[in-house]
Design goal:
Shape: globular
Helix content: 40-55%
CATH superfamily: NAD(P)-binding Rossmann-like Domain
Number of domains: 1
Radius of gyration: 17 Å
Number of helices: 8
Order of helices and strands: HEHEHEHEHEHHEH
Strand order of the largest sheet: 3-4-5-6
Strand content: 5-15%
Largest sheet: 4 strands, parallel
Number of strands: 6
CATH class: Alpha Beta
Structural class: alpha/beta
CATH architecture: 3-Layer(aba) Sandwich
Length: 236
């Protein structure tokens, strides 16, 4: 689970653990991993391994993959979920510094591509395996605020990456998909998302959709979820 300590990632960690999976949670922060253990009430006997790593460049991505392998003790990886990146609030397009644009793609697109580069080669021949990305509904329509334009482009880029990776792996066993979330999701115990927008519910109610995709037959899809009810239906 890449981005394990984020709003969406934390719920996925809990759901996969509840399903009996061994979970390696990757985060850039050891402190956040410890907080995740407390928030999710991860017991000592549960097969959760926290790994501090990132995907800032190719060298870091290779090191992250090695750390995950070490945490698993040589056991194979069946499923990768990458929830990396966040919504960037910047200036309107013509007033946004190019460095801000590059930074936004570093954290939300390039890091997801790097994750694919280090994990997909071994997943390709593995029957039943999956690689799942996450994007948002802003990919499909103009942003409600012009200062959210980078979020629109990043989400659309992740969706496009899904189709590119699906084409690359069309004859392989691994299934590449993206879950595109069109609604506000709160952290566990919260009532608003990271932008302060009210949310109907929290990540634990969304998480079953990720388990369903890992167990399912979807391949090469951008799966748009427009409500918690749709997430629950997919997970049922």
């Amino acid at each position: 689970m890449l981005g394990a300590t984020g709003v969406v990632g934390s719920g996925v960690v809990r759901k996969f653990l509840d399903a009996g999976a061994t979970v390696v949670g990757v985060s850039r922060s050891a402190a956040k991993l410890e907080q995740l253990r407390r928030t999710l009430e991860i017991g000592e006997a549960e097969p959760f391994h926290g790994v501090v790593a990132d995907f800032t460049d190719e060298e870091a991505a290779v090191a992250a993959r090695q750390a995950v392998d070490e945490a698993l003790g040589g056991r194979p990886i069946d499923h990768v979920v990458s929830v990396q990146g966040f919504v960037n609030i910047v200036q309107v397009p013509t007033a946004t510094a190019l460095d801000d644009v590059k930074g936004a793609f570093d954290d939300g697109f390039y890091n997801n591509l790097l994750a694919a580069k280090v994990f997909l080669p071994d997943l390709k021949p593995r029957a039943g395996s999956s690689f799942t990305l996450v994007s948002g509904g802003l990919a499909h329509f103009p942003p409600p605020n012009p200062k959210l334009w980078l979020a629109t482009i990043k989400n659309a880029a992740v969706n496009a990456l899904t189709f590119a990776l699906a084409a690359e792996t069309a004859s392989d066993e691994v299934r590449v998909n993206t879950i595109c979330i069109h609604f506000s999701v709160a952290a566990i115990g919260g009532e608003r998302n990271g932008l302060g927008i009210p949310a109907e519910s929290n990540t634990l109610r969304l998480a079953p959709a990720f388990l369903a995709v890992a167990r399912g037959t979807q391949k090469g899809q951008v799966i748009c979820l427009k409500s918690f009810a749709e997430a629950e239906h997919l997970g049922s």
